[in-house]
């Protein structure tokens, strides 16, 4: 009897472990997400990037003394919150569960910026914005080749906003002395 119970427990554990490796499992039991692996990855990465932008922008809005940097940070909060809501809607429609955490790399960057003040803070923030928006533009351009129409349309509609953010970040960074 003990062996039978042990065998049952091991089998149950193996089934759970196997299902945890499937990143396309939806939150609702055995349903699969309604996007392919690339679409799933795009939704997760775009969500994380947007959350990181908002967190960094909130820090910049509170720590910077430069009006251009503060205005840029406010724009980041507004635009990325709006884009995040659209992204969450698409993810919910496609049965993709998104997290509300940022990556360790972004946490490290933001924690590093917390230690800076004045022009050094502004430069670090605007440099981060340049780097992150360059990566985001590429991420969204890659997503235009996805198989899901909602993902494609969202990516295409968002690219001009991301390019505008990138151009603004470059201009502000260049003006910092």
UniProtKB/TrEMBL annotation:
Residue intervals of the DUF4142 domain: 40-172
The record ties this protein, via InterPro entries, to: DUF4142 (IPR025419), Ferritin-like (IPR012347)
Q: Which PROSITE patterns match?
A: PROKAR_LIPOPROTEIN
UniProt keyword annotations, A-Z = Signal
Signal peptide region = 1-21
Q: Which Pfam families match?
A: DUF4142 (PF13628)
Which residue ranges run through the membrane? none
Q: Which PANTHER family match?
A: BLR2558 PROTEIN
What is this protein's record name?
DUF4142 domain-containing protein
Q: What is the lineage of its organism?
A: Bacteria, Pseudomonadati, Bacteroidota, Sphingobacteriia, Sphingobacteriales
